[in-house]
Amino acid sequence: MCCCDDILADLLTDWISELIKKEVIKGKVALKVDICSYGEELLEVADRSEIDMFILTLNNIKFRSVLPVQDPFQNSLQLINQIKTKYGKPVIVLSDPLEGFSSIIERARMSTDFFFLLPFEADPFLEAVERGLRMSLGFDKLP
Question: I need a labelling partner for 123 at 20 to 30 A (CA). Which of 19, 23, 98, 132 fits?
Fold first, then answer.
């Protein structure tokens, strides 16, 4: 089963990947994109792969282990902190404005290297991607 949110998330991921390839990478290095639907899956991929940067959509992160009474945004913030602590790689977070959740957005903004509300302007986002790649080990000499 595929729902509209999944289709939109896939389109956003494809668009961002192509934008980064065309405007930042420009064929200089290979870009590999791993798409994870669940926070737990993201951690599994990060444990077995060399990840240079994480780009997450805050309100699209799902968790298999979240009970209906738990706040998924709290889990997303914990995931962001865990990624920053364990892997030490740059994190870019995208988020819908999330009316009524301004404290969550503010905490996400403070937890990440770069934060963008959707929709975002391409140029500042691409600058963040380039800065993130330069921050990441192995990309300090990005051509």
Answer: 98
